[in-house]
Design brief:
Helix 3 (42-49) packs across helix 4 (53-66), helix 6 (108-119) packs across helix 11 and helix 10 (239-252) crosses helix 12 (292-301). This protein folds into 2 domains: 9-97, Winged helix-like DNA-binding domain superfamily/Winged helix DNA-binding domain (Arc Repressor Mutant, subunit A, Orthogonal Bundle), CATH 1.10.10; 108-322, Vaccinia Virus protein VP39 (Rossmann fold), CATH 3.40.50. Strand 5 (185-190), helix 9 and strand 6 (211-215) form a beta-alpha-beta unit. It is of the alpha/beta class. 46% of the residues lie in helices and 20% in strands. The protein is built from 12 helices and 10 strands.
C-alpha cells in the first residue's frame, strides 16, 4: 500500500532548485541584466532582444519573484522592470564584479561525482603549474558567491596597518579588506603566473594605492618589514605543508600580530550545504580534508596563541590566532 497523501517535498524542492537555475542561466545568456540597468517594460525589452513579449513577461515575473528584479508601475500602467542591487552588481556585464556566463554553463559538480563513482578520484597533481590564470578566475567567481563577503564581514582588521595575503590569487580579499579599513595596506603574494590576474583586479577596482601584488613563493619569500596581519585562504591541502606555512607566517608577523586562516573543513557546520561541499571535495581528491581540530593543533604546534573560531558556514571555517 502507498500513502497518496505523502508529499514528496524534499524531492520537489531539489528539482525546483534545478528549474530556477535553468531560468537564471537563460536570463544571463540573454543579457537581461545588462539591458535593464534602468527601468524597462517587457515590450521595450522584447524589441531590444528580439524575444517573444509574452515569454519575456513570464521570465521577468519569475525573476522578480526570485528577488533578482524590481518591479514598478510605469507609464500607461504597464509594469517596468529593473535590476536589484544584487543583480546589478553580479549579473550585469558592465559591473567589475560580473560573474560571467561561464559560471552558469558548467556542470562541474555533477561530472565530478559521476567521475568518482565510475573511476575514483581525479588524478590531478597540485603543484606550481596547477595554479593557472584560468583556474584563479574560476576561484574568483566562487569567492564572489559568499567567501569574500563573509570574510570581510567577520575578519576584524580594525587598527591593523599592513596585511600580507599569502596565496591571495585574485586579490579580492585584500581589495575589499582595504576598502573596509581605510588605514590598511595589503600585499598579495602569489606565483608569477597568478599575479597577472591579481593585477587585473587591482586595476579594475582602482585599488592600486593600497594593494600591491608580489610575485613569489611563500617557501622562499623574504621580507625586512614585518606585517601586523596575515590572511590565508585555502593555500595548502596537506597537514605538513600547513604547519610549514604557519611557521613562515609566524616569522612574517610583528609581535602581537594576528593571522586569519580560512579553510574548508569536513566538520564546518551541520547543514546541507556543508555536507554537499564535503562530498564534492572528497570526490575530487579521494581523501578527507582538514577538520577543525587539525587547524587548532597546527596553530599550537607552530607557537601561535589565542586560537579562536571566527566564522563557520557552508563547509568553511575561519580561525584566528596571535603571535
Amino acid at each position: 500500500m502507498y500513502d497518496i497523501e505523502l508529499e514528496p517535498e524534499p524531492v520537489r524542492r531539489i528539482l525546483n532548485y534545478h528549474k530556477l537555475f535553468e531560468i537564471l542561466k537563460v536570463s544571463v545568456d540573454l543579457g537581461i541584466y545588462t539591458q535593464i540597468t534602468t527601468p524597462l517594460t517587457a515590450h521595450r525589452l522584447s524589441q531590444s532582444l528580439g524575444i517573444d513579449e509574452s515569454f519575456l513577461t513570464f521570465l521577468l515575473e519569475t525573476l522578480w519573484l526570485t528577488g533578482l528584479l524590481e518591479r514598478a508601475r510605469g507609464e500607461h500602467e504597464s509594469w517596468v522592470y529593473q535590476n536589484t542591487p544584487v543583480a546589478q552588481q553580479y549579473l550585469s556585464h558592465g559591473s567589475p564584479l560580473y560573474l560571467g556566463k561561464e559560471r552558469f554553463q558548467e556542470d562541474e559538480p555533477g561530472k565530478l561525482l559521476e567521475h568518482f563513482v565510475k573511476e575514483g578520484p581525479s588524478k590531478e597533481v597540485i603543484n606550481k603549474d596547477y595554479w593557472t590564470p584560468e583556474l584563479i578566475k574560476k576561484l574568483e567567481v566562487s569567492a564572489l558567491l559568499g567567501g569574500v563577503q563573509s570574510a570581510v564581514k567577520h575578519v576584524s582588521l580594525a587598527g591593523r596597518k599592513r596585511l600580507l595575503d599569502i596565496g591571495g590569487g585574485h586579490g579580492l580579499y585584500s581589495i575589499f579588506f582595504t576598502r573596509k579599513h581605510p588605514e590598511l595596506h595589503a600585499c598579495v603574494l602569489d606565483l608569477p603566473q597568478v599575479i597577472e590576474v591579481t593585477n587585473e583586479n587591482i586595476k579594475r577596482h582602482n585599488a592600486g594605492a593600497r594593494v600591491r601584488a608580489i610575485a613569489g613563493d611563500y617557501h622562499t619569500f623574504r621580507t625586512t618589514r614585518k606585517f601586523d596581519a596575515i590572511f590565508l585562504s585555502n593555500v595548502t591541502p596537506s597537514p605538513d605543508e600547513l604547519r610549514f606555512l604557519l611557521t613562515r607566517s609566524h616569522s612574517f608577523l610583528s609581535d602581537n600580530g594576528i593571522v586569519f586562516l580560512r579553510s574548508f573543513v569536513s566538520d564546518s557546520t551541520r547543514d546541507v550545504w556543508s555536507a554537499a561541499i564535503t562530498l564534492e571535495r572528497y570526490a575530487r581528491r579521494g581523501r578527507h580534508g582538514f577538520s577543525r581540530n587539525d587547524l587548532t593543533v597546527a596553530f599550537h604546534e607552530t607557537d601561535f596563541a589565542n586560537v579562536k573560531d571566527v566564522y563557520a558556514a557552508e563547509g568553511v571555517i575561519i580561525v584566528s590566532a596571535t603571535k
